[in-house]
Write a structure and sequence with these properties.
The structure is a single chain. By secondary structure, this protein is an alpha+beta fold. A four-stranded mixed β-sheet has the order 2-1-3-4, with helices on one face.
Length: about 150
């Protein structure tokens, strides 16, 4: 009896071994895709925004190469920063009244944010359509209050 070899398997290509990027314990994909700084060149309320853009924007862009950074002038309007996210949402933060360090904190807030809508953590109270058989209990309607 002759020994038979199994049929040759399909070759495993290197491209098939790569995994798709996903947020998890191995890979993290930042959700922000674009930051837009908008300021006025003349208004004093934009002075700190202009200072931040002049002094800190280049190192911000080097630290976050995945984010497109756009600087746009808004004549005679307050300075703002817009964050555009992968889920087609945008967040806008006004920058008037912030010092340069406050602007840096707001930029970091936009960079760390997911762009998802903020949901309240508290649940709505449950309201029954029918009244309970014994009525509603309250600690104020008992003869002797509960002692801890």
């Amino acid at each position: 009896m002759a020994f038979k070899l199994p049929p040759p398997a399909r070759p495993l290509l290197r491209a098939q071994l790569a995994s798709r990027p996903a947020n998890g314990h191995v890979a993290f994909i930042p959700q922000i895709r674009k930051l837009v700084f908008e300021f006025c060149n003349k208004w004093p309320s934009s002075a700190n925004a202009r200072t931040y853009i002049h002094n800190h924007l280049e190192q911000l862009a080097r630290a976050n190469p995945h984010v497109e950074i756009v600087v746009r002038q808004r004549t005679q309007k307050e300075p703002i920063i817009r964050g555009f996210y992968m889920n087609d949402r945008e967040k806008v933060i006004p920058l008037n009244g912030f010092e340069v360090t406050g602007i840096a904190k707001k930029v970091q807030l936009l960079l760390d944010s997911s762009g998802a809508k903020i949901k309240p953590l508290k649940r709505r109270t449950i309201e029954s359509t029918t009244e309970a058989a014994r009525g509603i209990w309250s600690g104020l309607h008992v003869e002797e209050p509960y002692k801890i």
